[in-house]
Amino acid sequence: MFSAGAESLLHQAREIQDEELKKFCSRISKLLQAEDLGPDTLDSLQRLFLIISATKYNRRLEKTCVDLLQATLGLATCPEQLQVLCAAILREMSPSDSLSLVWDHTQNSRQLNLVASVLLAQGDRNEEVSAVGQGVLRALESRQPEGPSLRYLLPIMAKVVVLSPGTLQEDQATLLSKRLVDWLRYASLQQGLPHSSSFFSTPRARQPGPITEMDGAVATDFFTVLSTGHRFTEDQWLNVQAFSMLRAWLLHSGPEGLGTLDTDDRSEQEGSTLSVISATSSAGRLLPPRERLREVAFEYCQRLIEQSNRRALRKGDSDLQKACLVEAVLVLDVLCRQDPSFLYRSLSCLKALHGRVRGDPASVRVLLPLARFFLSHGEAAAVDSEAVYQHLFTRIPLEQFHSPMLAFEFVQFCRDNLHLFGGHLGTLRLSFPNLFKFLAWNSPPLTSEFVALLPALVDAGTALEMLHALLDLPCLTAVLDLQLRSSPAPSERPLWDTSLRAPSCLEAFRDPKFQGLFQYLLRPKASGATERLVPLYQLLQPMAGCARVAQCAEAVPTLLQAFFSAVTQVADGALINQLALLLLGRSDSLYPAPGYAARVHSVLSSQFLALCTLKPSLVVELARDLLEFLGSVNGLRSRANLVTSVVWAVGEYLSVAYDRRCTVEQINKFFEALEALLFEVTQCRPSAALPRCPPKVVTALMTTLTKLASRSQDLIPRASLLLSKMRTLTQSPATGSMHGEHGEEGAEAICTRATELLTLLKMPSVAQFVLTPSTEVCSPRYHRDVNTALPLALRTVSRLVEREASLLPG
């Protein structure tokens, strides 16, 4: 969430029109052409960057301005801050055909870094990625001290490896592996010199001190990213950057990356000043560069795990320890997949690490890579993976649902490792109530992630419970808010909306009488049972205005679409019937968040039709339930979409063509129910408050009644009389108020439909042909064949209807 001032600036930037932007670009062009690039230039570039980055679509800049931005980026004398802004603006424009930056035209390593960032943002249009990679490699091959600083180029190389792994040749990959070994294992253990010293400072005062550990002790082992000091040397910075790209490089250079295992490379002695690590797997022999890098990477990760045991003196260092632990475990996972000999050397420390962090809420993010490690190697390592997953899916979402970073990483972990769950996929599926806590509290950023995850979570055994949970998601958000508010040890910065006061809701949350309902919503696993939560909807109505609840309510329709797309792939006939009944039952039982019911009803109506299309016999099998649903007009206006869909489904599928069990008695019962419903929503009684009924409901009712009458011709006189009354009713002055905002247009649509249907009923055979076409008529052949084309049939029917003649042509 942005502050009010930031929101105002963003709004102003988005409102700037193209003409204003053109004038502003002209002003910037003049400033960039001046000899002195002063504060005005800096301020203008900052404003331009805000303007082009505040919108989702690309802003078009004047070509002169773009050319000057590129030229300024290449100036050796230009202040660094201006060059950074120029590069940021050009990146926001990318990909663009108007950019003409070239890697070879710059020499300063800082400029190379900025130019490369723009070229990589362009994509690989003209093999820019390969050119950037080769440029960095040339700098790597140069051993001259006056060459470009690799400190600024190594991050670019890491990006190139990810974007275009095939850029590097075999000898270049070997060279980079050797350099990474140097940087990771042999960085200096002395702090860097100050940038400048006074005239009166003594040589003793200028001597660098030793590197220290997180707890302040002097480091006695090699330098890592967790080593501390006041200033760092160039090789120490390269050590940090080498570790940041280590995992990506291992994945690229491993057996699955280059396609071949390492072979002995005797040039190790000539190409690197390193000694061989004394490890059990490498003792007594020299290792090829890539095997050597894996060995050094293993040692580096082991050292990081040891350093994470030290008590950090600053909170920032403590956070860094946890982040490095996550990366170290991920690197070990890669190493063990590439070389199983590392597995047995890693297990003892990783088991100990898991035992240490599983009880520490602050280290919960470390559990995710550990769980992935055990997923990958649990069987070979004889680890009780089930216990790891139970703790992961039970405790963490329940206690840490309010952490947005953890929520995203947790869902990503589930998505990325579905192929590894295997026999444990059932544990994941049963844990969906806990996973939904992440979704309820962080719905905007996690909606797309759950849309992708839902197909794996949906199971025929828990589908109904999951649908209930999705419909109750805004209510769950409100309950989680109350849970945080009633926490005995709230955080220093409240995680809930402090502007919302809901003392009555807090009292209800603590009331033992409602504990069963609250505990059901907060259950960690699927229980196989469902609860009616209507009492909670009333209790928690004051929370409906909470911003977080409103955000969650907006996400539910998208999630419902994803759920039905998945569940229809696994549902049998019985489950389809149950889902249809659930849709009808929940249509009037939703949490009263503003606008929530209307959005959900729109989805439920379309999905009810999809279920009927999937199983047309559903209408006959659920006839009693559908009659009960249509027997009431309560909330008809709010449920207009769903009522229309049910009425249409009855008219379409209540036929022997779809189910031989369909009887005349059933058709007559539905006709009577729909006739009564149409009468209720259209009658004019001055003493009664009429329910405002959308015209589409009335036209759907009339059409379905006509369809039913065409299938049971004894009903044609009643249907004709009803349609005549509807045509007369539309001319009544009260009709406009009956249809609310639709007014005269709605009345005209009803009158037109009634006239068309009346004309059809005058010729029952024609009505049956038009309203209940056979499957042959619906087949593609009937539309393509010249002799039996549907347009020909329709023209014939039109003539007959207009003349009110018999079926014979005349």
Automatic annotation (TrEMBL):
Residues 320-437 form the AP-5 complex subunit zeta-1 ARM repeats domain. GO terms for cellular component: AP-5 adaptor complex. Residues 449-800 form the AP-5 complex subunit zeta-1 C-terminal TPR domain. It comes from the Eukaryota. Residues 1-279 form the AP-5 complex subunit zeta-1 N-terminal TPR domain. PANTHER family: AP-5 COMPLEX SUBUNIT ZETA-1 (PTHR46488:SF1). This is Adaptor related protein complex 5 subunit zeta 1. The gene is AP5Z1.
